[in-house]
Design a protein that fits this description.
The complex is a heterotrimer. By secondary structure, chain A is mostly helical. Chain A has helices spanning 16-39, 43-73, 83-112, 117-122, 128-156, 162-187, 198-211, 226-231, 233-246, 252-281. Chain A is built from 10 helices and no strands. The chains are: A mainly alpha, B mainly alpha, C alpha/beta. Chain C: Keywords: Antibiotic resistance, ATP-binding, Cell membrane, Membrane, Nucleotide-binding, Translocase, Transport. Chain C: It is found in: Cell membrane.
Chain lengths: 283, 283, 308
């Protein structure tokens, strides 16, 4: 009796080995691309908010507060520059932090729970590390637009030096990566939303924005609160931004400290995220 | 147990649900049983999300501490109806109004959106003898209850910090409730048009400028006349000015106009919301 | 004969250009188990929602428990038990509180609701899960809880939309048992389903709906008698050969239907039909004789299969 011929699905010359090796190298980009494509569904609100926020914060809040502050302190009152110039880099950085934190809170939790995309991705040749990095890359793309909008408004309205405004972009991206990975490292350990997701906004993003020298120099606060600034990625990024935008006094060693802190935070929490993702996807 | 009668009460013991007795134009949309919707909300609040509710109290306090101490040091005093007011005392009532608005909008948009589209809570309620108006009123009352908790908590903080300049500050609590009522009654109707979470972004996109520019952190006189009119058309400005008059004791005749503004807003909002719920669930 | 619990004449629902329910007539008697059988999108759920007064009809007449749903929604729903297709339980409340709070929505007094909730938990075989969170229940448990919830107001009629869709076979049988007990107690059951076995198990009488219209009405057995044969022979020749084989089979039994994956031969004696097929020299890959079901009725009436 002859062996039964097994029907073979026609794979049309697909080279599965090639697919696997390509995914090993470029998996992170496939993940990012997926997320960026998904972003198109809310591209309108993304653009509106990105472009709107610098006008609102710089020309609304900054200008209004500036009138009060400068009337009291004189035109060179805060850190040797008008108030608007003083807060511009910090506002840009704060927006980057908020966006990165928000995306990572709901995107990461949702990817495991509400629309379990990560599990689907894990079923392809893509690995946990690719998902973690790819997700963050897509967040950086999302953050880049408001950063560019802020810098453009600064250049157009002559706030600080144009070159400095340009330098805010890489600083903002570094901050977004650090905050993004940090939030991701925590959110990915959460399996149930009993409301604690909103804590990221309430107890991390808002206090950090308010107490790490965004709206006023850190030294204005009582000394016992300064530690909030030191651990806050936002403060480190804002200090770098101020140095870049209007040449605020910044010792070279401090530049190293600020950049080093952000890079370390990003690296460490990225590693932690990959570890958690790997555990959660492997079951 | 074989159980001849599957449901064990004898037919004579069984109670039928009382038929709603509401007559007139509200018949079919109101059953006079808002109480049950409120009870459900309080039970959930007490059992599962009291932590989330509690933490909502901190946001305005963080703002008060940060802006009041930090910016206050840079700004000094601000003039309000001809009197110089310490900066912290100037922003405290505004933050109270903002917190009333935020709480009400959050409850009536985010939470309602979730209950409408994911938990299907309103479908459940509307498959009983409840009508859409019972549901709308119940949700609004719950939002107000939460607003009341925040207003009282915030009042304690500002009193301890010595930021209430007159006995009329006590009236700020009912005033905050009126503000919350206005926003909550509209929020639900607007939420009923939303299809995706991204649509919620637009709400926050509208609230952000209101929050930052409605004489919250600086007087609107810094703006050109035309722009002042725009802000004065917004509900938050009325809320801020009303509560500020009460906490500073600098009460003006314009407070009546503010009250009228919110009265109209509440009536229109309730009508709008009921119409929308009806269109959504009874179509 | 007592007045019908629910009666519709020319009941129609349009959404813009789309007619979901196209002028249907039916009358449901007290104590009856009445079914709407049809594929997804036939207009069953829309009809149920119009009965529950959560959807306003476009035209026609509808009377539910003596009221017109157009302006007596709360009065009607006060007397109905509704079991929606998706369970729609209150995930933020525990199992027992789901029943109690739901009873409160009807304005029933607290002590009564508490007592009744315990009994309904017993009925739904969920007493042990009393204090559990809803999201930890299995699909079958959730559905039983939903049914218990629908009974809290001692309804005159239960509306069940696809009561066992998505449940595993064992859970379905447990649920059918519960529903059967309700029926024995005299509760009027109105249910939609796209499962023939469910309709056969539970319904005294049913209407077959397709594209918003009623295509047949009767008891399950009378429908089978009227529109099908006693037995059906199912033969498979492989996707490419079914069509050709059916040509050769033509003439055996009273009717032959070709589906993409098999050929159905309708005959009162299935075994005899099978022998006849073999006599014609045909060698099917698999063959099977079964009794006719409502699936066959539907296929006959619409030319389409019930579950695609």
């Amino acid at each position: 009796m002859s062996t039964l011929e097994q029907p073979v699905a026609d794979v049309g010359g697909v080279d599965h080995a090639l697919i696997a090796s390509r995914a090993r190298g470029w998996g992170w980009w496939f993940v990012a691309e997926h997320r960026i494509r998904a972003m198109r569904s809310y591209v309108a609100s993304w653009i509106a908010i990105s472009v709107g926020s610098p006008f609102l914060f710089l020309l609304g809040l900054g200008l209004g507060l500036g009138l009060l502050v400068d009337a009291n302190q004189g035109a060179q009152g805060v850190d040797g520059v008008p108030y608007l110039v003083f807060i511009a880099p910090a506002l840009s950085m704060a927006t980057a932090m908020q966006t990165a934190a928000q995306e990572n809170t709901y995107g990461v939790f949702g990817g495991f729970k509400w629309f379990p995309m990560f599990f689907a991705m894990n079923g392809t040749p893509i690995s946990a590390a690719h998902i973690v990095v790819g997700f963050q890359v897509s967040v950086l793309v999302r953050v880049l637009l408001p950063l560019v909008a802020f810098s453009l408004v600064m250049v157009v309205f002559g706030i600080g030096s144009p070159l400095g405004a340009l330098l805010l972009l890489p600083i903002g991206l570094l901050l977004a990566a650090a905050v993004g990975f940090a939030v991701m490292a925590w959110v990915s350990t959460q399996t149930e939303d009993r409301g604690q997701l909103s804590f990221v906004e309430r107890f991390v993003v808002v206090p950090l924005t308010l107490f790490s020298g965004t709206y006023f120099p850190l030294e204005t606060l009582p000394a016992f609160l300064h530690w909030i600034g030191w651990i806050s990625p936002l403060w480190h990024a804002a200090e770098l931004g101020r140095g870049a935008l209007y040449g605020a006094e910044l010792a070279p060693v401090m530049v190293l400290v600020h950049v080093g802190y952000l890079v370390l935070l990003a690296g460490l929490t990225c590693w932690l995220s990959i570890r958690t993702f790997r555990r959660r996807l492997d079951k | 147990m074989t159980g001849q009668r599957a449901t064990q009460l004898h037919a004579t013991e069984l109670l039928e649900a009382p038929a709603p007795t509401v007559r007139g134009p509200l018949r079919g949309i109101y059953a006079g049983n808002t109480r049950s919707v409120v009870v459900r909300g309080l039970q959930v609040m007490a059992r599962t999300n009291w932590v989330v509710v509690l933490t909502g109290f901190f946001e305005p306090v963080f703002y008060l501490l940060s802006m009041g101490a930090g910016l206050g040091a840079l700004i000094g005093t601000v003039e309000f109806y001809g009197v110089d007011v310490e900066y912290a005392a100037y922003i405290a009532p505004a933050l109270m109004a903002v917190s009333a608005m935020n709480g009400a909008v959050y409850d009536s948009t985010m939470n309602v959106f979730f209950k409408m589209n994911f938990a299907k809570l309103y479908q459940q309620m509307l498959s009983t003898s409840l009508g859409p108006l019972d549901v709308a009123l119940g949700e609004i009352l719950l939002a107000l209850f939460r607003g009341l908790l925040y207003a009282c908590g915030f009042m304690v903080v500002t009193t301890l910090m010595g930021l209430n300049l007159s006995w009329t500050a006590v009236l700020a609590i009912p005033a905050a409730l009126i503000v919350a009522f206005g926003f909550a009654s509209f929020g639900m109707a607007i939420t009923s048009y939303m299809k995706t979470f991204q649509h919620l972004d637009y709400v926050f996109f509208l609230m952000m400028p209101m929050f930052l520019l409605s004489a919250t952190f600086f007087p609107i006189e810094v703006y050109p006349q035309g722009f002042q009119w725009v802000i004065q058309a917004m509900p938050l400005w009325h809320g801020v000015d009303m509560i500020r008059q009460l906490t500073t004791g600098l009460i003006q005749p314009s407070i009546l106009m503010h009250l009228l503004y919110f009265a109209v807003m509440i009536v229109l909002g309730l009508w709008f919301t009921t119409a929308r719920l009806r269109a959504l669930f009874l179509r | 004969m007592p007045a019908p619990v629910i009666e519709a004449t020319g009941l129609t629902k349009r959404y813009g250009d789309f007619t979901a329910v196209d002028g249907i007539d039916f009358a449901i008697q007290p104590g009856e188990a009445f079914g709407f059988l049809g594929p997804n999108g036939a207009g069953k759920s829309t009809t149920m929602r119009m009965i529950a007064a959560t959807s306003t009809r476009t035209s026609g007449d509808l009377s539910v428990l003596g009221f017109d749903p157009a302006d007596h929604g709360p009065e009607i729903r006060a007397q109905l038990g509704i079991v929606p297709q998706a369970d729609q339980l209150d995930e933020e409340l525990r199992v027992i509180d789901n029943l109690i709070i739901y009873g409160r929505y009807f304005g029933l007094p607290v002590p009564y609701v508490k007592r009744r909730a315990e009994e309904l938990l017993e009925f739904a075989q969920l007493t042990e899960k009393r204090r559990s969170r809803v999201d930890g229940l299995s699909g079958g448990m959730k559905r039983r809880l939903t049914i218990a919830r629908g009974l809290i107001n001692s309804p005159k009629a239960m509306l069940l939309d696809e009561p066992t869709t998505g449940l595993d076979p064992q859970a379905r049988h447990v649920l059918w048992d519960r529903l059967f007990r309700l029926k024995e107690e005299g509760t009027t059951l109105v249910l939609t389903t796209h499962y023939m076995d469910e309709a056969e198990q539970l319904c005294d009488r049913l209407v077959v709906v397709d594209k918003g219209t009623i295509v047949a009405e009767g008891s399950p057995s009378s429908l089978i008698r009227q529109y099908s044969t006693r037995e059906v022979l199912e033969v498979r020749f492989g996707s490419a050969h079914n069509e050709a084989a059916s040509q050769a089979i033509e003439g055996i039994g009273s009717r032959v239907e070709v589906l993409p994956d098999r050929v159905l031969v309708y005959a009162d004696d299935g075994e005899a039909a099978m022998s006849a097929v073999h006599e014609r020299g045909l060698r099917p890959i698999t063959s099977l004789v079964r009794r006719s079901s409502l699936e066959d009725v539907f296929l006959r009436l619409t030319g389409r299969s019930l579950i695609e």
